[in-house]
Design a protein that fits this description.
single chain, alpha+beta, 4-stranded antiparallel beta sheet, 15% strand, elongated
């Protein structure tokens, strides 16, 4: 069982980081995704896609910006950002690349599938 600090060390739009203590006494940082992030992102993307498509359709002066394509890239990027499994894989890949370099320290990572609300 982890002993979490309720006050986050850091917070951003989709997640926050809390200090916790493992049963072994080791202090760790735990990244916690904020509640309903995926639903909020999907709603926001839906609104932005509508605006981009309508702007592209009716405002010829900005058609060269190709807002639907820009939004498609943003959609892809934000989904990678909220995928913590992807982030974990990238950190572990980074660790593999630098495991023989003592000048670069990559934090040890753990995968926690789901924690109950604390």
């Amino acid at each position: 069982m982890l002993n979490f600090q309720k006050k986050p060390l850091a917070t951003a739009s989709i997640a926050q980081v809390h200090e916790a203590k493992l049963p072994t006494g080791e202090r760790v940082a735990v990244k916690v995704q904020k509640a309903n992030v995926e639903e909020i992102v999907e709603t926001d993307l839906s609104i932005m896609k509508f605006i981009a498509n309508e702007s592209d359709r009716f405002n010829t002066s900005i058609k060269h910006l190709n807002l639907p394509a820009v939004l498609h890239e943003f959609d892809r990027s934000i989904h990678k950002e909220i995928d913590f499994d992807n982030e974990l894989m990238n950190i572990r890949h980074l660790n593999d690349n630098f495991k023989y370099n003592d000048k670069i320290i990559v934090p040890t990572t753990f995968r926690i599938i789901q924690l109950k609300k604390f």
